[in-house]
Amino acid sequence: xxxxxxxxxxxxxxxxxxxxxxxxxxxxxxxxxxxxxxxxxxxxxxxxxxxxxxxxxxxxxxxxxxxxxxxxxxxxxxxxxxxxxxxxxxxxxxxxxxxxxxxxxxxxxxx
Length: 111
Fold this sequence. Notes:
By secondary structure, this protein is α/β, with parallel strands linked by helices. 37% of the residues lie in helices and 23% in strands.
């Protein structure tokens, strides 16, 4: 599955592919930034449901988008985080910046 993007209630939801590595991170960064620049969303939710691998490039993608949406007063969240990705997010300290939104539906993310 390729990475897909949708906007719901001014939230850009990025359904990530199986791997978020150096090669895929370039496309995710480019597309997400383009969608943010269109002004239809203020926040981002990264959906890791299908993702089994992420390297430091993935952390960079999240950090860069975090900086962009915080300037807009938005937030960054993650959903569908499996054990391997959870561990990476914990070790990197990302949970200090992003919220684990598992259990919340898209329409409730901003609440």
